[in-house]
Amino acid sequence: MEKRIIECVPNFSEGRDPNVIRAITDAITLSGKAKGIRLLDVDPGEATNRTVVTFVGEPEEVVEAAFRGIRRASELIDMSKHHGAHPRMGATDVCPLVPVSGVTLEECASLARELGKRVAEELNIPVYAYEAAAFAPERKNLAVCRKGEYEGLPERMGTPEGADFGNRPFDDGVARTGATAIGARDFLIAVNFNLNTTSTRRANAIAFDVREKGRPQREGGKLTGKPLKDETGETLMIPGTLKGTKAIGWFIDEYGIAQVSMNITDTSKTSLHKAFDEVSRAARERGIRVTGTEIVGLVPKKAIVEAGKHYLRMQQRSLGIPEKEIIRIAVKSMGLDELKPFDPEEKIIEYLLEKENGGKSRLVDMTCRAFADETASESPAPGGGSISAYMGALGAALGTMVANLSAHKPGWDDQWEYFSDFAVKGRDIQERLMHLVDEDTEAFNRIMAVFSMPKSTPEEKAARAEALEAATIHAAEVPLKTMKTAFEAFDLLEAMAREGNPNSVSDVGVGALAVRSAILGAQLNVRINAAGIKDKTVAQALLDDADEIAAYASSREQGILNIVNNVID
Asked: Is the pLDDT at 354 greater than 80, yes or no?
């Protein structure tokens, strides 16, 4: 299941005093103790008197961390004494929330509005909602929200041009904190495309070919012609081919090559792989080759995985392969490791977070032997529920394997996409069942935790009984989910028995046996947990669902085995 992660990039109006900057970042991370918050970058600027901080984590934790940072900045920065080269209007000037994985831009916009309302109400700081969180179209533009900067606030506050939250006449509080813009925007990918040339001019020409802004129109269509202007005096531009991108060409002494340096500001319009392909095309037309790609900073997993799948499609190869293999295809296809090794655990945000947090100990991360030994130990978990989920995952994995083998079978090239689609579905079922391996054990542990609750008073006993009922219902719902998920694998297995590589049909049969065993095993866990549920209506509904799935499972398994045996015979 995709982890929910967002990025936050607050800009604070202090770039010269390291003690103030450290105090703000300590507030964000709780001096490094904030659960789930990873501080990625702190970039102070003396001339701008501004520090850009970047951190990531799960949405709720990030919003709380942002609030702590805004609060601390309001305590330490007096805007009435602030001077710097960068436009600004508040101690926390801007605070965008950025979706990374498992979260939409719309959800980030909603979170930004909630944060803005809280900042205004609890910290008494006026807040403008901007970009995707804006309430009015014109306020999507940060420049509109920050019009006149800090010095313009006395005229704007308390008027229709004032803040969306906490709008009031300019007073001593606003004089100190200024106003803040809180919003949501897409993730920005910073990337450099390596060229087999040392010419900055050639690199710039390629950048102008592709960037959204493009290049100026010139008299006579000649490079040396004067730029053409419209009736308002604005330079007429020939748009580039890539929407949502900014790019320039430069020469890097360290590498001895020219690069096209690009910011992809809207990944919904231009993906990383689309940018690579288009820059490569534009370079070829100028007699130049893109030799590799350099990711600056971090990148969301989605961008790399989508790239890997894109190049697999181009090769007519199945997409239903492990994620690490898809990422390896992306790395090699775009030359992400040309200048230095590309370590996914260091460059992909989701992997870095898991690594920094020490990685949650999971059963599915164990070796086969360690998992078996843990099951055999005196500990009651993992038990039958987790084992059932794992059997189902293995059954789905066998069906996926046959789909992948069929997609790559000589002479079957015209069917590669058909089998690839089945492999992708199989991978999805497998991953969900793998998640249920740990979820079943967590459900058992939740029941055990209830028994440690106090029970000295009637109130404590009632709370304990309520918690036990909820935990027991959950413990029955999890294996029922395992049954439903495993049952989905039958469609994959039947299709592979009928149409897949006949040399692997026995693997399909084993997969069907494993899936049925997973379903019947999970049913036993539904039954034993349902017996402990006090609400018998709820318990019976769970049992009825389980009985129906189990009955169908037997007939589906037998049907697949009949096909398998006919092929073998």
From this structure: no
CB 181 within 8 A of CB 95: yes
Residue reference for tokens 């910290």: 123
Check residue 357 and give its pLDDT: 57
Residue 489 · residue 396 · CB < 8 Å: yes
Q: How far apart are CA 219 and CA 226, in angstroms?
A: 5
Q: What per-residue confidence (pLDDT) applies to 141? A: 87
Contact 200, 258 (CB under 8 A): yes
Residue 394, sorted as left (phi over 0), alpha (psi -120 to 50) or beta, turns out to be alpha
Angstrom distances, CA of residue 416 to CA of 315, 338, 374, 503, 564: 10, 31, 40, 17, 22
Question: pTM of this prediction?
Answer: 0.77
Collapsed DSSP state (helix, strand, coil) of residue 73: helix
Beta strands 215-216 and 237-238 are antiparallel
Query: How far apart are alpha carbons 184 and 115 in whole angstroms?
Result: 11
The predicted-structure confidence for 66-89, as pLDDT tens digits, reads as follows: 999 999 999 999 999 999 888 899
**Whether the predicted pLDDT of 472 surpasses 70:** yes
DSSP string, 444-477: HHHHHHHTTS--SSHHHHHHHHHHHHHHHHHHHH
Tokens representing residue 49 in the block = 């008197």
Q: Which residue has the tokens 């989508």?
A: 306
Which residues are identified as catalytic?
86, 440
For residue 199, which amino acid is it?
A: S
Angle at 529 between CA 510 and CA 397, to 5 degrees: 20
